[in-house]
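[worker-b] picked up task from shared queue
[worker-b] task type: protein-ligand structure
[worker-b] ligand name resolved to flavin-adenine dinucleotide; SMILES cross-checked against name lookup, match
[worker-b] sequence length check passed
[worker-b] input payload:
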Amino acid sequence: MQVCSGSREEALVLLAAFLPKAGTSYTRNRNFDLGAGQHKHVSQLSAYIKRRIITEEDVLKKVLSAHSLNEAGKFIDEIFWRTYFKGWLESRPHIWMQYCADVHHLTHELQTQSGLRDRWAAACLGETGIDCFDAWAKELAETGYLHNHARMWFASIWVYTLQLPWQLGADFFLRHLLDGDAASNTLSWRWVVGLHSVGKTYLARAENIQRFTNGRFAPKGLAQVAPPLNDTASTMAPKIIDPPNPYLEGRKTGLLLHSDDLNTAHLTQYSDCIASAAYRPVDEGTMLVSSPKLLEFNNAALDAATKHWKPNLLNCCDVTTPEGILSWALENKLEQIVTPYAAVGNTSQMLEKCKHLLSNHGVQLTQVMREYDIVSWPYATKGFFKFREKIPKILTSLSII
Ligand SMILES: Cc1cc2nc3c(=O)[nH]c(=O)nc-3n(C[C@H](O)[C@H](O)[C@H](O)COP(=O)(O)OP(=O)(O)OC[C@H]3O[C@@H](n4cnc5c(N)ncnc54)[C@H](O)[C@@H]3O)c2cc1C
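[worker-b] inference finished, payload out:
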């Protein structure tokens, strides 16, 4: 994947190049994984969409200006898979919290159980002896990207052939994928092991891998069965998504940018901000570190966004912790901080901590939700196919069609 600057301009160039392929070509070819540097049948926009360098709406509008809804139906479905996962997890934050706790616990087990550690290390380094799996582990580490089909096969082999806990695989992905996303990643891994569509699992089969990699691989010794896992998190009731604090007019306000949404176009109405800051965490990985490539891309994308949106970002400085955000607010005598809404994940946990610190000093944290999320997320209550029925309604509400 040729990711360089993480800028909006770069994303728009990628989108323009992909546009002719977003219709019937995508429907026909999207499942073929042609290998690193050859992913020409898919958009490779995920690292940009994840940070909203370009938004789902930007992509949908462009695609629907070039193709009919019917022609681009498959591609549009995939954009909405992301939307669905985000909305679904938003009303079930306990699933994310449970995943984080599991990873924490398993990371300790890696230190004490040498058998588990050896199998995990071989999988992460691509030294299992399973040709396709080893190639994907290396491709992921080197490029920060894997084709969707490869992610499905990889996750299935990780759990059912290598007998490793799914949470460690999801963590390995999150520490390497440039598009690593709390909702899409956690829920896709859960989907593979039968925890999302309860009881339905995904088994990677050698013939399927051979066919959709154009014969590049002929894996041997793959598991022949994929029994579903179960857990208690799946049975807990969803919660109503709390509306964020409303914006307070006439207060001394600062603008906080973060990597869950690096696009301030929807914040221009708050142009009376007197200061701005960019949240630049050192590493959001678990006890294990994220790949240098991911950290580099995070920084590049943040740099590109602060440059692109400079007119909206007065005296922009970096902040690295919730305590740093508090100091910045106090130094600038802020009464309110406005920031794009962060969906369930690391940034939202950080903002929650921030909210409490700030409120002790009389400063309100105001998260601004996008219309796209407000309109779409309430439909993400059951399975994707129920949600999918609402796509035309969502597109109409947003005046995209
Ligand atoms: C185990 C596993 C883990 C995954 N982890 C992530 C993750 O951390 N972050 C992430 O963005 N996607 C994740 N996905 C979904 C999917 O693999 C990627 O979004 C896709 O491969 C990105 O490549 P692309 O931009 O070329 O996709 P395209 O095929 O060009 O699709 C366009 C956009 O639609 C969205 N999209 C496509 N497929 C999916 C999908 N199945 N689920 C959700 N959104 C989708 C992405 O935003 C993508 O950029 C995961 C899938 C699996 C099976």
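[worker-b] attaching auto-annotations
[worker-b] The first strand starts at residue 253 and ends at 257.
[worker-b] releasing lock
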